[in-house]
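Table 4 source record.
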Amino acid sequence: MKLLINEDPIPLLPSLAMKVGLNAALFLQQLHYRLNISKNIREGHKWVFNTYDDWMEEFPFWSLNTIKRITYDLEQKGYLISTSKHNKMKIDNTKWYRIDYEKLPFSYTPNEITADPKPDTPPAQHETSINSQLDAVQTHTGTTAYPTMGRPITKELKKNNNKTIVEKNLDVAHSVIQYLNDKTGKHFKAESAATRKFINGRIKEGYTQEDFIRVIDLKTKQWLNLREFNAFLRPSTLFNATNFENYVNELVVAREPEKELYIPPVLDFNSGEGLI
């Protein structure tokens, strides 16, 4: 059994993990990297805007609830600043994130730009200074110190880490869709982007291939021979987030053992049976 890995590790200083917690430190590490290469300047600060789905792609080993909990805790402690006011449309709730570096002792802050540049103007000079800072920075004592948060999760590393997960999810999608087609006589394709999105979404929420199979069994039993419901035996209905959760809970109720109905004995007083 291999005890060492060949992939690039994610360096993390124990002092940071001790201050904010391991998961929070990993999140700050990745956000710190994204901030350094970000071209989104607002109010003199660099920002990263991400949806929760985007963060799940950055951290495929965390669930949605874990990411929400991490960001909420960091916001409450003041290490993470987030807002949605920089979105162009008010109905867009995508959050913009930055780190309050003043809350993190012994960390360096990316160079701030005092004025918002034009959206199409890349801050080339700023990027050059960031690259030099990533190598090393000088402390007030004159000694060389490296950035508090270490090497980021690069796109290449994320691609390698996600490869196995993607292949596994694709295998599940093929098995689930083949089973659905066999049960219904339909011809859905596992390669469909929409279908894979539904299935991958449920897998990220912790559901297994067996959960998909049981839901298919349940709904085909209920709907297959009903003309008005047969059309709903499709991935978009069965595997979307709200429906799937409801169907799984429907399975839980269906599996509960039914209480036996007590039927009292019939007493025939004319024959004398049943009398003591």
